[in-house]
């Protein structure tokens, strides 16, 4: 039997997509990057069907690209080479009941973050992880990328939310640890390896998610600050004095201007060197806690519409950039003590590598997480290399929350030692012996030129 026959037998004719028109949306990622054509798209409806797809692809030596909501920004969710099989998790959308005693919920990997959040809220809980891509991004994708978002400051990244998971490894084995036990140190925690593995070790099929209590009172402030160093000081004051602190994001002036122009609105506060979006959430109104620390010229909103208006200037950056043209997107992290130096040196580094380009800088200040977006970059520029080298020089990471993907794999050696990368390759060889899961993602092909 051919690969397509085996895949048809695994998922049924209706869930094997081979027509170019139908495949197209699965071959194009959120950034508009059109990948190599897939051999097929399969949409398994159960863990057993995922395992059957892996077996079929393994027998045929066909690489598999796991795909959730396809909102990833590092070319990990679409084929790198023609002939790969896209495995969509879009049918694994079962949402279990909230287990109130443990504060956990079990969901299929294809459930969107928005649906997860709604299920949590309906039971009086909160999913704690939230991204602007929530309507499409899936739980499986968030776990695979160890996604973060603004609220990671308080609740951690996806890793902190995973109480257990089920996955099909590259050799077709199903590993399952869904008991939800907080204390369970019997043996290695295999599921933990899957978090942040970007679909290179296994395909996450089911996740047991740790919820937090819903906090009814939420306040958002938009804060002008006159220097990056002063913003870092303010962050320290917020951490020390605002126990209800939930998020501290930032926008540099070009980013604020871009969003205001895109949405046709005035900036909510005066011009400044940097603007912060600060959010606090608690059982009782946290306004007084915030007021004790924030300057008087901050704009504050405690109603849903007002808060959404302020957040739109930050969360809408991706949309505003999209409308402004093609942008280079790099998601990096820098230790907070070096962040001021980083943000001060970055514009000159960008200008030298891509003359005449337009940096749009924003991110999650509390996590030292900077989203470096650059418009009007000439195709032959070595911008990525220059930005990632500066990041590594200051002790940062080339990927804070979006993942390494295929886009940044060749630079992993800037921030991970050769021995560490060799250990990663050994784990990959053990769990995916035929290297069929997402080849070229995170780990560059052996022998690929170092930057
Ligand atoms: C507007 C916008 C805002 C964003 N904001 C944030 C943000 O604040 N923080 C943040 O961290 N990210 C953010 N992202 C990036 C993206 O949404 C996240 O990385 C998200 O977790 C990806 O989920 P997904 O389901 O779309 O995964 P996909 O894009 O489909 O896949 C991403 C990677 O995970 C792998 N994968 C997907 N599902 C599985 C699975 N079930 N098992 C194994 N591997 C799998 C894929 O192979 C790929 O390597 C944003 C993206 C957009 C477009």
What would your notes on this structure say?
- With 451 residues, the chain is of the alpha+beta class.
- It contains 16 helices and 17 strands.
- A seven-stranded antiparallel sheet has the order 14-11-13-12-16-17-15, sandwiched between helices. A four-stranded mixed sheet has the order 1-2-4-3, with helices on both faces.
- Strand 16 and strand 17 form a beta hairpin.
- Helix 10 (253-263) packs across helix 13 and helix 14 runs antiparallel to helix 15 (383-393).
- The longest helix has 18 residues, at 336-353.
- The radius of gyration is 22 Å and the shape is globular.
- The protein binds flavin-adenine dinucleotide.
- Flavin-adenine dinucleotide binds next to strand 3, helix 5 and strand 9.
Write the layout of secondary structure elements.
Layout: H1 3-11, E1 16-17, H2 20-27, E2 40-42, H3 47-60, E3 64-67, E4 85-88, E5 104-108, H4 113-122, E6 125-126, H5 139-145, H6 152-155, H7 158-161, E7 162-169, E8 174-177, H8 190-194, E9 202-210, E10 212-213, E11 217-225, H9 228-241, E12 245-251, H10 253-263, E13 274-282, H11 287-291, E14 299-301, H12 304-315, H13 317-324, E15 327-333, H14 336-353, E16 358-364, E17 369-375, H15 383-393, H16 418-431
Parallel strand pairs: 2-4, 3-4
Antiparallel strand pairs: 1-2, 5-9, 6-10, 7-8, 7-9, 11-13, 11-14, 12-13, 12-16, 15-17, 16-17
Helix pairs in contact: 1-3, 10-13, 14-15
The chain binds flavin-adenine dinucleotide.
